[in-house]
UniProtKB/TrEMBL annotation:
Keywords: Transferase. PANTHER family: ACETATE COA-TRANSFERASE SUBUNIT ALPHA, KETOACID-COENZYME A TRANSFERASE. Belongs to the 3-oxoacid CoA-transferase subunit A family. SUPFAM superfamilies: NagB/RpiA/CoA transferase-like. Signal peptide: none annotated. The lineage of its organism: Bacteria, Pseudomonadati, Bacteroidota, Flavobacteriia, Flavobacteriales. This is CoA transferase subunit A. NCBIfam families: pcaI_scoA_fam. GO terms for molecular function: transferase activity. Gene3D superfamilies: Glutaconate Coenzyme A-transferase (3.40.1080.10).
Amino acid sequence: MINKKVANVSEALVGVKDNMTFMFGGFGLSGIPENAIAKLVQIGVKGLKCISNNAGVDDFGLGLLLQGKQIDKMTSSYVGENDEFERQMLSGELEVELIPQGTLAERCRAAQAGFPAIYTPAGYGTEVAEGKETREFNGKMYVLEHAFDADFGFIKAWKGDAAGNLIFKGTARNFNPNMCGAAKITVAEVEELVPVGELDPNQIHIPGIFVQRIFKGEHYEKRIEQRTVRQRD
């Protein structure tokens, strides 16, 4: 069995450099690879093209990379609660590709499966389809969307083993499984890292074949993006 365990986040990010394309799992602040993002901020890589559902908030998650002007392009489905993301987009400082959320997921999954492109009805007849090939199937029009081509995919899982098998927890599952194996190198950070054989095979969400590096993350803040509580009686 191949051992994909690396000692820490620094070792997991070997080969990262300026002007690369990165995928980041997560939805809002749920299931984001906190350790990988923090290290990318620390090492100061620039000119990044990032693929993620959104860009966190101003002072957390991918928002930290935006603050440092480390991202040149965001491919997302949602600007979200990030004022700096919105400001950079409207000012032209940041190139933004806004795409339907399902299309984002399927372009990840196409890359994961080795498909060069997919046809989707989402966006046909709108600005999303401008300049793209369209085709009719069974009387319905579809838009050709290309699979993503990323250098690194950064994934957050709850539990994993040294072979790279992963288990996600709750809503943190979101985009993470679709991004596993969708980049040239998939780096998974987990809260619990166990020896091979300790995970129940029936509980594994992503097999290790889709992961190249895995490490145990530290100090997860797991910040809540929007906290809603009911009024006291």
